[in-house]
Design brief:
Length: about 140
């Protein structure tokens, strides 16, 4: 990949969040973390991200509510949901709202890295296509 993926971890479990942050940073990713959906929305107002790793069960604003708000702020960001509580209804809602992937905790780090790489590649490909389409529309006048 040409540049480092910018990843935001959103999880109310501080130990999990910090450990995952360290693991991803060691793999060369540009990683930040916050402890709530509300803090994630504030962070998105300050900085853009390529990928958000989002927990479902959090106080105040759950991951589903946060996902809906995140997509309003940045529809292009790829969101990977990490949860310890599997549910078909939740998985369906996540995909309906534009979530990229749904993974169960604990997720092996190599599997998570594969999903992050795939999400980043998808985002970069989409941005490249959008850039080409915009260049075609604004090309030289006849």
């Amino acid at each position: 990949m040409s540049s480092k993926a910018r990843v935001l971890i959103v999880d109310d479990e501080e130990r999990f969040r910090i450990t995952l942050n360290k693991l991803l940073a060691v793999k060369g990713l540009d990683v930040h973390n916050v402890g709530s959906g509300k803090a994630a929305l504030e962070e998105l107002g300050q900085r853009s991200y390529d990928i958000i790793l989002l927990d479902v069960k959090m106080p105040e604003m759950n991951g589903i509510e946060a996902l809906a708000e995140i997509k309003k702020i940045d529809p292009q960001v790829e969101v990977i949901i990490l949860t310890g509580h599997a549910s078909v209804d939740v998985a369906v809602e996540i995909m309906r709202l534009g979530g990229y992937e749904y993974l169960l905790k604990p997720c092996p780090i190599e599997e998570l890295l594969e999903k992050v790489d795939a999400a980043f590649e998808r985002k970069m490909d989409r941005e490249k296509r959008m850039s080409k389409a915009a260049a075609t529309r604004t090309g030289p006048a006849s």
